[in-house]
Amino acid sequence: MQLVVGRIGRAHGIRGDVSVEVRTDEPELRLGPGAVLLTDPAAIGPLTVETGRVHSGRLLLRFAGVKDRTAAEALRGTMLIAEVDPDETPEDPDEYYDHQLIGLDVVLADGTPVGELTEVLHLPYQDLLTVQRPDGTEVLIPFVEQIVPTIDLDEQRVVIAPPPGLIDPADALVASGREDAGAEAGAGSAAEAASETGAEAAGSGAGRGSEPGVDSDENDGGA
């Protein structure tokens, strides 16, 4: 099975190094010295990794036969592809290869169907799961534990806990409306409490309205 493990970026220096956008959780295995990689476009490869190092947070690779900046720049935009045994799994039990995830059913915690996982996008800031809904539309799900708490390969499903509006934008509007209404109600209650407190203070000649202050702290803590 072939997996995209990286994308070549701009040349670095004058000796043939290139920056690589990593698209694998195992770069030391897939992109280490000696690794032989297929390419897209296919005519450019295969490429053999000669050396690798990290510079300013970026992976820099040098490939056999690429000796100068001109040759390195000619590789820019090339996808790097590794041959992987389809039965192979990552060492970390919380990690998955793309092919293990593609095709899984995506459901909510209560079992409500959402759609089918069709693609895993590896972006610089985080991974996203592309989910195709029954009506043909697509939803992008951040691949983080808080939103994707369960992946069950035996049951062939992914359980998600999306925040309001991630699946259906209308849910975000409803949630926002409720928050606005709650804020208005809270403002009204606070005004009434302040009015009552002011009346008490005027009658006794002392008092700071400590009770409204305590209520405010409790509301903040529950938010």
Tell me the strand percentage band: 25-35%
Order of helix and strand elements from N to C terminus: EEHEEEHEHEEEEEEHH
- Our count of helices gives 5
First-residue to last-residue Cα separation: 48 Å
Dominant shape: elongated
Radius of gyration: 27 Å
Q: Class of the largest domain, according to the CATH hierarchy?
A: Mainly Beta
Mean pLDDT: 79
The strands making up the biggest β-sheet line up spatially as 1-2-5-4-3-6
| CATH T-level fold name of the largest domain | SH3 type barrels
Largest sheet, strands/sense/barrel:
6 strands, antiparallel, barrel
Q: Ranges with pLDDT <50 over ≥5 residues?
A: 187-223
Number of domains: 2
Q: What portion of residues is helical?
A: 25-40%
According to DSSP, the number of beta strands is 12
In CATH terms, the superfamily of the largest domain is PRC-barrel domain
Level-2 CATH architecture of the largest domain: Roll
Class by SSE composition: alpha+beta
Helix and strand layout, with pairings?
Elements: E1 2-12, E2 17-22, H1 27-30, E3 36-40, E4 47-55, E5 58-63, H2 69-73, E6 79-83, H3 98-101, E7 105-108, E8 113-122, E9 127-132, E10 138-142, E11 150-152, E12 157-160, H4 169-204, H5 210-222
Parallel strand pairs: 7-12
Antiparallel strand pairs: 1-2, 1-6, 2-5, 3-4, 3-6, 4-5, 7-8, 8-9, 9-10, 11-12
